[in-house]
Amino acid sequence: MAIDAQDFRRFFGSFPTAVSVVTTLDERGEPRGFTCSAVSEVSMEPPLLLICVGKGAHTLPALHSHGAFVVHVLAADGEELARTFASRSREKFAGRDWRPSTAAGGAPVLREGVLGHAECTVTRAVDAGDHWIFLGRVDAAELHRERALLYHRGAFGFWEPAPAYTHAAR
Hints:
Elements: H1 5-13, E1 17-18, E2 20-25, E3 31-36, E4 39-43, E5 48-54, H2 60-66, E6 68-74, H3 79-86, E7 98-100, E8 108-110, E9 114-128, E10 131-143, E11 148-152, E12 155-159
Antiparallel strand pairs: 1-11, 2-3, 2-6, 4-5, 5-10, 6-9, 7-8, 9-10, 11-12
């Protein structure tokens, strides 16, 4: 039995997911970005991750042409950032504190509302239904904060990590 788009969305919306913003540069060197919940680790050796980008996304042509991107996992206080980058606005970077990446061809590294970021080089792009899947080799990464922003059933929240667990030697 086939599942319709609404049931498919409701099914995956039932799983809490981290919220990320992906940034890159367009062919004129202008910053572009979007909110992305489809980010996943692929391989430890070499370090690879994937992002999924809708075919209607304004950032898609820039990802294809620039060949590098930065994934920012948002911190618990990053909801405004998530909402701004989920919009169709062309002014997403206006007033934002960011620096050019060193390992992702100058793609923007955001400095606010971010748990951590990974600077990636595209190794492959795969046409997949109404999305493109980009495999990125992680060339640099930093972790800045502790609490991640989550999205679940249409609402933002955060997860409070447990105190560090130390395994006692036996």
